[in-house]
Specification:
By secondary structure, this protein is an alpha/beta fold. Helix content is 19%, strand content 24%. The strands form nine sheets. It has a five-stranded parallel beta sheet, with helices on one face. Strand 27 and strand 28 form a beta hairpin. The longest helix is centred in the C-terminal third of the chain and has 18 residues. The structure holds flavin-adenine dinucleotide (FAD) and NADP nicotinamide-adenine-dinucleotide phosphate. NADP nicotinamide-adenine-dinucleotide phosphate (NAP) binds next to helix 4. Flavin-adenine dinucleotide binds next to helix 1 and strand 10.
């Protein structure tokens, strides 16, 4: 007789986001005529009654909301890939699957490079699927760029400081849509959280999914190279200086892409006598008090830093080559053209005008950088495009390597959550790898799609393309497309806020009220005719909802 054991978990919601969770529910076996209750359980955290969970039959994939698999490191401990508050509280114990072609021998191991949001997400899903992994992290923390560091330049081990956070940074996507789909933020608090809150959230994620056991700290990956069909990973223990080599079956590169500054070549820069820095090294504005400052680049960093520096500076020249920023800006911020060349005391701009400046901040973005990938890995960066990548992530020539988080202009944590699961589906043989010609063809089609929208150096830029991209990954990986539609809706609304109300958009609250609904709460001090203070729900008449942005909110 074939029957399944199904657990209905009733107790998760009150404890989501915490390390301890209680489980209580019913143990069922599925019979032809429906479920039959075989017993009850009620327990806390690690005391889940694993021994009661016996598989009675070969299990046929796929499961409904997750798979319960033997944890190879934890002595027969089944794991639930719970989908948290985003799915019904129903878990189905699923099959123990073996990677395609591999028998039930020694499990294949995965190296994860970096314990930022991407690396943690990798550990969460790999461990849930019972795949042994080691996460190599060069710092003593998890959270990557969200671990604010006052220090600039080199860290205590002589490595470049990784984080690009500045002291007063607040997120630019409301936290309830920025989060991983399977790990919502706790209720309450401001939508536009501080970097410290995101760091705490990531710490909670690591704790909740018991990920610390996989992270090897102060482990700087120095070199990754192919070794037959596997990968040699050379790691330096930064505390002892000891260098070791381990061999893995797959590598997930999660080293972050906003750490190595891109600084354009400015002719005559050596003549310039003022202060010059990259936004990567910007922490707070006090050193610019009373100064005339050029901020080059008007994306997220440039806009944020220009506004903050303007609070203390004499004049800020926001220098860029885009259309003028349509939002109101502080009175002492002037938008000017991009830089043509430097002079001794300032800059000649592309329209022939000049500005005198005591300092320039290059908010000109970052470079993809994989210094530890040996040339034999075959990964190259050509005009800001990482090749050869299938679906912006999978090493097409050596598909046991994936580079996570390459796309930008996205909701990063959501992208990680999908990319990792796609990799896992391939790695476990749940879905076949497409033939090489098909991957090449799809990659070319995708490139052309991007080139229609963006310049050649932005072929990993996503914006609107991120939504079909996520759906494609879910379909290709045959896993649940668990991002709520409201994420896209809020993302679009917020993009509009940011564009038109740069100075005040972070005081607007976004509360997710369902899969497809949200409330947008304006600050009570605002007083604009088109945007009355108070709550606006998505269901309100279109005129009111759609036109709220047309009048800038008052600056406090
Ligand atoms: C200033 C700034 C603001 C941002 N604001 C937002 C925002 O509001 N919302 C949002 O969603 N995203 C934001 N982002 C994007 C942010 O980068 C992503 O949200 C996400 O944190 C990236 O995670 P990651 O794991 O890919 O990289 P990271 O967080 O950079 O983590 C990479 C990790 O890899 C480690 N590492 C690197 N090289 C090695 C090595 N050789 N050996 C061992 N370990 C290594 C690093 O120490 C680090 O811990 C912002 C980024 C920046 C720079
Ligand atoms: N939470 C927050 O508020 C916050 C704050 C800062 C950063 N971030 C995040 O951090 C990441 C990096 O953002 P970023 O703004 O640092 O980098 P970015 O998005 O890469 O933006 C860099 C900008 O500089 C411009 N630029 C480059 N060279 C230039 C030149 N020579 N002259 C004029 N302009 C030039 C680029 O123009 P082109 O587009 O034409 O190349 C681009 O607009 C993003 O994910 C962002 O969302 C978030």
């Amino acid at each position: 007789m074939v029957f399944r054991m199904v657990c209905f978990l009733h107790g998760l919601d009150s404890t989501m986001g915490h390390s301890m969770h209680s489980y209580h529910g019913d143990i069922f076996t599925m019979k032809k005529n429906g479920p039959k209750i075989r017993g009850k359980f009620n327990t806390m955290g690690n005391q889940f009654p694993w021994s009661a969970m016996m598989f009675h039959a070969p299990w046929d994939p796929p499961c409904f909301f997750g798979t319960g698999q033997q944890h190879p490191l934890g002595a027969g401990r089944p794991y639930f890939t719970d989908t948290a508050a985003t799915a019904p509280r129903t878990m189905v114990m699923g099959p123990q699957q073996h990677p395609l072609g591999a028998g039930p021998g020694e499990p294949r191991r995965v190296a994860v490079i970096g314990a930022g949001a991407a690396g943690l997400c990798a550990a969460r899903h790999l461990s849930a699927a019972g795949v042994p992994c080691t996460v190599f992290e060069q710092t003593g923390h998890v959270g990557g760029t969200w671990v604010y560091n006052e220090r600039v330049g080199l860290d205590q081990f002589g490595l470049p400081v990784h984080s690009s956070m500045y002291r007063n940074l607040r997120i630019n996507i409301p936290k309830h849509v920025m989060c991983y789909p399977d790990f919502p933020f706790k209720k309450g608090g401001r939508s536009y959280a501080t970097h410290q809150e995101i760091r705490d959230y990531l710490k909670n994620y690591a704790q909740h999914f018991d990920l610390h056991q996989f992270v090897q700290h102060y482990s700087h990956v120095k070199r990754v190279a192919p070794q037959g069909s596997r990968w040699s990973v050379v790691v330096e223990d930064l505390k002892s200086g000891r260098v070791t080599e381990e061999v893995f079956d797959a590598v997930l590169v999660c080293n972050g892409h906003y750490s190595v500054p891109y600084t354009p070549t400015v002719p005559n820069m050596s003549l310039y006598g003022g202060v010059s820095m990259h936004s990567h090294d910007y922490r707070e504005p006090s050193r610019f008090a009373g100064a005339d400052v050029v901020v080059l680049g008007a994306n997220a960093s440039g806009l944020d830093i220009a506004v903050e520096v303007a609070k203390v500076a004499n004049t800020v020249y926001l220098s860029h080559n885009k259309d003028p920023v349509p939002s109101r800006l502080p009175d002492n911020v002037r938008q000017v053209k991009g830089i043509k060349e430097a002079t001794e005391d300032g800059f000649l701009l592309l329209d022939g005008s000049t500005v005198r400046a005591d300092a320039v901040i290059f908010a000109t973005g970052y470079e993809f950088s994989f210094p530890f990938l040996a040339p034999e890995c075959g990964v190259r960066v050509v005009n800001n495009r990482v090749v050869p990548l299938y679906k912006h992530m999978l090493h097409r020539e050596r598909p046991t390597m994936a580079l996570i988080g390459i796309p930008y202009c996205v909701v990063p944590f959501v992208i990680f959550h999908y990319q990792i699961r796609y990799f896992l589906s391939l790695f476990l043989g749940r879905v076949p790898l497409p033939p090489r010609e098909q991957m090449e063809r799809e990659e070319e089609e995708d490139l052309q799609k991007h080139l229609l929208k963006f310049p050649a150096r932005h072929t990993h830029k996503m914006a609107d393309l991120q939504w079909p991209y996520l759906r494609e990954l879910a379909a290709a990986g045959s896993f649940e497309d668990d991002m709520w539609p409201v994420v896209q809706e809020v993302y679009d609304a917020v993009e509009d806020d940011r564009k038109h109300q740069l100075l005040v958009y972070r005081s607007i609250e976004y509360n997710v009220t369902g899969r497809d609904s949200y409330e947008r709460v304006l600050p009570s001090t605002s007083s604009t005719p088109a945007a009355p203070a108070g709550l606006m729900t998505k269901q309100q008449p279109p005129q009111q909802h759609l036109h709220h942005h047309q009048q800038p909110l008052q600056i406090k």
